[in-house]
């Protein structure tokens, strides 16, 4: 197919697909006309059953926690896949990090950028920790908080240098943390199985609604996901940067 | 509740994380190999146990002990019936064979190969056993992510990266369709459990939204199943993936897409969409796929591409069986699925052995090169005939059941199309086997000009290569023996009919999952055993076609020239359509999806 034929065909049939879908979707309940039982059951159940005011966290880590375990491992797999694809090839070697733009002096980091970085790093770190720890009380949780944790370290790179980032985040430590995060969730969910109860049963004490240590497994699962997501994203950032800054083909001297 | 139920997913998930860590600190292959094989063996044991336990009554396992409240399924359930458990078992057996093959494999370490194989295994197990729509999607995604990474494993070449990219783009688009379908069903029914959704959908007459939801789900899963016109990614990906991954892709992953279509149809839609337009659409897609895949397989000289196209063809064949929307043909399809998966896995392992010895999978380059590999050559040609449906392999038993049932239903055109498709794929494989291992015949006018040559393949392995290592032969022989066993076990047709009847029993499924009531089901009576002549026919035709390809047709020159000029435009068009450009693939996808959704929205599939 040449370009114009492909484009014509694509847009013609995409319009048909969109039209048919829109026609079909008109048969759905209209906005605000909620019909399903799920929401009502969870909202009326999450405080008495799970001692948490956060219905979303109760769904993701308890009622439908098995899905979240799967999602967590999707992230784990994706990180492993990226690291596999970005690994150093035999025809490649590592060099000292340097600016590839030849004939240009590396500008010194301005103090304004440095100050912004110094300000943002602890703020992002703190906010990330707070989101993870309070995931079962307020909106947020392990996935969101974990991304923020990784972002905090990204500020280090943005406001200073690649070498500073690697000093902060050694690869081995990140590997450990990522695996620990993933396995803590899985092993925590397996614990009831060892005690001859159903897998994923929330058997820790549920505590007082609204306190930090409540809702049983939820804070632990949030923390483990936070650690896994944070470490995973840092591994990804490190791998991407390494590919651009450190790894060179043997031929490009 | 059965404590074994979550283990086929749980063991490989935790194992994958731990193996990833082990790989960082002990840079030794053997320990990783041993750990991975041990976990896979444990999964096989669990799957077997589950298969035995669910034979009398479907096992329902509620995660987190969230049993249904007042008939509403709050949590996620595994609903394990014999069909799902048997597929999970097949996935685990194929994983074991792939891992055994890779015993002498992979120079590079620190590449997460073992972790990815275990994650792949976990995702397939979960996909087979789950009774929840969204959970199915989660495992569908996990399966995809692991598979994309495995496809691109050999990053030194461009082929694997392109194949992995095409694979991930097409399958992600398919996943969007699935998600859209799930969204529609959720907004209509307010739940995600298959039994619950099915019960709510059956309450009202089907409208355009529900019909579209079925089509969207089917389209998404048919992308994975590589059905025309969503099949383009498959040859690109299967041809370049490392051998153990190809074994899993063709042996079970593609078939799981078909399984998902059957599962959602029977649990959700069978009450409200009785056949009709949906059947016509799926049957047409299946039969077209069977023919296109067969012809394209015959036109290849790159051995792994050839096998990949034959997978496309057989996937179409199995979709046709499912599209009859009939328990008996579904039972035949289950047997066929197992028989084909084992044979195809064995063929990919054979091609891996060829690659191990000669660093090439090109039929013409390797002409006669494999003469000293006597055992592999003989097994390869036997598998080619088994692929065509030679008795007593599992492929014969399954196909005979499907064809007999189709004839009973008055669909007499199915058997001849099956005959053509299976003999074409069998002939293609047989031709390349005879060429590579016996050096018979002359370069073939149909496959010789194929663009993909498969000659300069980079090595997958290291070490000395004058003998095939035992650890490569073992999985090959194991797979052939298992494929024979699937065809020979006298109780298997009855068992698979029972399994299929259980899948198709929508009311029984709902009563069991939502209310915990189990009613014994009487499966359809066993069809009479098909006569062996029917099985010899496609295998014989395959031999004739292979011979024609190798030696030319015994026709006068004038007729031959006429035949060639007739065939050339058809073959040229087919080759042009399979262009390798992802933009074309997406365009074909949109065309197919638009037609299917339009038909669904206008006819409501009645």
From TrEMBL, chain A:
InterPro entries in the cross-refs: CPA3_antiporter_subunitB, MnhB
Keyword terms, alphabetized: Cell membrane, Membrane, Transmembrane, Transmembrane helix
Superkingdom of origin organism: Bacteria
Keyword Transmembrane helix listed: yes
Ranges annotated as spanning the membrane: 69-86, 112-135, 141-160, 172-195, 215-241
Primary location: membrane
One GO CC annotation: plasma membrane
Membrane topology value: Multi-pass membrane protein
Entry's localization field: Cell membrane
Keyword Phosphoprotein (UniProt): no
Annotated Na+/H+ antiporter MnhB subunit-related protein domain residues: 119-234
UniProt record similarity statement: Belongs to the CPA3 antiporters (TC 2.A.63) subunit B family.
Protein name stated in the entry: Na+/H+ antiporter MnhB subunit-related protein domain-containing protein
Automatic annotation (TrEMBL), chain B:
Keyword Cell membrane: yes
Record-level GO cellular component terms: plasma membrane
Main location: membrane
Transmembrane segments: 6-22, 72-101, 165-188, 208-234, 246-266, 278-299, 337-359, 371-390, 410-430, 470-489, 536-560, 581-601
Keyword Signal in record: no
Subcellular location: Cell membrane; Membrane
Gene Ontology molecular functions: NADH dehydrogenase (ubiquinone) activity
NADH:quinone oxidoreductase/Mrp antiporter transmembrane domain sequence ranges: 131-425
InterPro entries to which the protein is assigned, alphabetical: CPA3_Na-H_Antiporter_D (IPR050586), NADH_UbQ_OxRdtase (IPR003918), ND/Mrp_TM (IPR001750)
Domain of life: Bacteria
This protein's UniProt keywords: Cell membrane, Membrane, Transmembrane, Transmembrane helix
Membrane topology, record value: Multi-pass membrane protein
Any one biological process term the GO annotation gives: ATP synthesis coupled electron transport
Similarity annotation: Belongs to the CPA3 antiporters (TC 2.A.63) subunit D family.
Stated name of the protein: NADH dehydrogenase
